[in-house]
Amino acid sequence: MRVVIIFPHVGYCTGWRPHLATEVKNGATYHIAQALPYLYSIARHYTPDAWVVDFNFGSHEENMQRVLDYQPDAVLISSTVNSYDSTKEIAAEVARRSPARIFVGGPAVSSNHFLRPDLLACDAPVEFVVTNRDIFAWSQQVFGKDDKLKFRTFEVDNSWLFETYPQEVRDKLRYTVITSLGCTFKCTFCLNPAVYKINYKDPEVLRRECEYLRNELGADAVSVADPYFFMRQQHAEEVMDVLADLELRWSQQTCLVTLTDHNLDRMAETGCRSVLVGIENFSSGEINKPVEVATFEERVMKAKERGISIKPSFISGLLDIDHDTDVAQIKYIRSIIDRDLVPNHHIQSNIYTPYIPDARDRLLDVPFRFWGILPVTARDEEHWHRNLELCDMIYDQIFPETAKRFAEVRTEYLDYLDGRESMWMEHRPVPDIAPDKRLHILTSGKVRA
């Protein structure tokens, strides 16, 4: 069986930071999508004929020709929500030009297939794959068998990197590894606790994966793409031991509460250079983790003393926050830049985006490329205007170097909406599911729109 795995082109919420950057600077690197090593490696477990095509590099036409030249029996498209416009375009073109079966999966599908199916409609005969909290579950649907592979012991094959990216691209990549899945916190807007079953990789399996990246690809640093690095302390300690033994610089993401003096010391000793910390919003009840301004600033200074950069992420426009509170937080973010606590290129600051279904959301009828950059949900037109003001403020106050590009994208967004009969998307109502129930039913199919 011949299989091509596709990562579609991401919209304006790009793989580079900050969003809308018109040039790559400040040491930015493109992080390999964490799904690709596993999709390729699982496919190779069942067939020797598997390839990867990343549509974020090279032209669409060149990439499509590569897909067709492989003469695939099956095409697997792993789509984020931000890349779903590209997913639909690729699926339709493959369907016109190839007899291959087309499978579409990834976060866009797992979060929407049962509760917002209208968002996934394609002009092509595609088969949707919901992993239902098991990253190996799709093999039964594609290959007709399931060898009961386990995340803890599964060996990743990264040889696809040579075939997928030329040397000049590989020199600018940040290689990623995943050492754990899931999250024990349950923030209402986040997919991690809903679609990933909690799991931990055997440290020796990680060692072999990192040795390959170092010895064969020349990697001197890796990004640990775990949604929550310190979810299990013993596992985190074992991972740090491996990275220290291999003398690899590394980065990770975790929660503010885990940045204790002990953990910061261990991170510094083992070569950690930066950590993405999900602050999101200091005032929201949607956040299921402790975040306080004083603790954040104190931890930033402690990390700086150890040569570690804290990269905070913030969200404006959460459903339980009033406009004035959002404005105050954006001004606060500007203040930490002005006080030289955190440079702006280490900050993520986005508008709330309804990546998981919520009965409170009223969606705007705009393409997915705008998700994460401009408002795609609002209660009414007045609320939409206020959310648009928040976006204007974010890019003016926090990312002023992107002002010209933001203005272009904003104009495109408004022109698109102006051309619609209604600004609102018509889709079946999402069932009103209590936040504490979403973990069990979001991707189970037990509740459907």
Instruction: Tell me the distance between the termini.
Output: 35 Å
- The beta-strand count equals 15
Instruction: Point out poorly predicted stretches.
Output: none
Based on CA inertia axes, which overall geometry fits? globular
Arithmetic mean of pLDDT: 92
How much of the polypeptide forms β-strand, as a percent range? Answer: 5-15%
Helix content: 25-40%
Radius of gyration over alpha carbons? 21 Å
**How many helices does DSSP assign?**
16
Cross-sheet strand order for the largest sheet:
8-11-12-13-14-15
- Please, what is the oligomeric state? single chain
Q: Structural class from helices and strands?
A: alpha/beta
Largest sheet data: 6 strands, parallel
Question: What can you tell me about this protein's structure?
Answer:
Helix content is 37%, strand content 14%. The chain has 449 residues and is α/β, with parallel strands linked by helices. Strand 12, helix 11 (261-269) and strand 13 form a beta-alpha-beta unit. Helix 9 packs parallel to helix 10 (233-245). The longest helix has 17 residues, at 381-397. The protein is globular and about 55 Å long. The two termini are 35 Å apart. The relative contact order is 0.12. The model has no long low-confidence stretch (mean pLDDT 92).
